[in-house]
Here is the input.
Amino acid sequence: MMEEVTWKSPSNIALVKYWGKYDIQIPANPSISFTLSEAATTTTLKYKPGRGALKVFLEGVETPSFEPKIKTFLLRTLELFPFTSDFDFEVHTYNSFPHSSGIASSASGMSALALCLTSIKETLGLEVLDFFQVASEAARLGSGSGSRSIYGPLAAWGTHAEIDGSSEHYAVKFKDVDTVFTTFQDTILLIDKGEKTVSSTAGHALMDGHPYAESRFIQAHENQSVLLTAMLDGDLETFGEVVESEALTLHSMMMTSLPYFVLMKPQTLEVINAIWRFRKATGNPVYFTLDAGANVHVLYPKSHKEIILKFIDEELRTFCKDGSYLCDEVGFGPMKLNEHDLD
Ligand code: DP6
Here is the structure.
């Protein structure tokens, strides 16, 4: 008989981007993100006394190709979770978003697993001083951006002069914002559903020795300062300017590294231009951000949901693969589930 614990943990979308890291999983610059609500991973971790055997099931199907990543994660987190070598584990994981939609599952997946292990640590009677801080630190060791999935509505990771308690080792909850930002909408336009052409590990490595690295890292600190003030003041225009600039900077870094990559597709640019046109013509507060891929996250206040969804349907949907997009919004962080929640 195995014991088990289940956590549902969300994905997040960075506003100031983490791009570049040092060993092990120390960010080169601070970042801040909206925690999402719908895009999430639910992971059940089953465990029994043993010798560190591991099986991984993805959407109910045993997936041995995921084992090495999780084994590395268990080794990296051994200091936080020293008990893992004395147990056998089964990881059962489900994503709320379609496989290969281009939405990264590493942040939600690694944070869900980190939360399960933190719960087990507590159950075993081992000392856990600050539950979510331990989970965030552990998640970071699996996926840097995963450290931010632990808190909603916003989370900041990496030392920043204006964020009390900020750390390179774990994210902190960030709530000093005008309420408009705690219900922000994120409609994810699925431009290219294929696999990512550059893995995050390879991507971050592109910043080692990058000619613009130092100025980029300084800029991220400055952008974060400007963004924090804008969010506190409810200043949508400045918020949009920083967020869009961060997205384009992320892609610029990829275009100017060696090797170089262009991860935007023609449709990505069509969407960006259409958003700019619509914003200029109507004055509506609608902005975009990008991950390390072609998909576009359309960001806007909840008060403008109706008009922006109409705009997306009429003018942006045509640029999406099979016309598909996902509606998400700012969320409040992970949830522990009981067996009866899972049916
Ligand atoms: C572009 O967190 O996926 O989404 O630490 O190697 O797992 P690893 O990288 P990952 O990188 C995310 C990069 C980004 C920007 C961000 O989320 O801040």
Remarks:
- The first helix runs from residue 67 to 76.
- The helical segments are 67-76, 106-123, 131-142, 200-205, 213-233, 236-255, 266-282, 305-316.
- The chain has eight helices and 14 strands.
- The two ends are 21 Å apart (CA to CA).
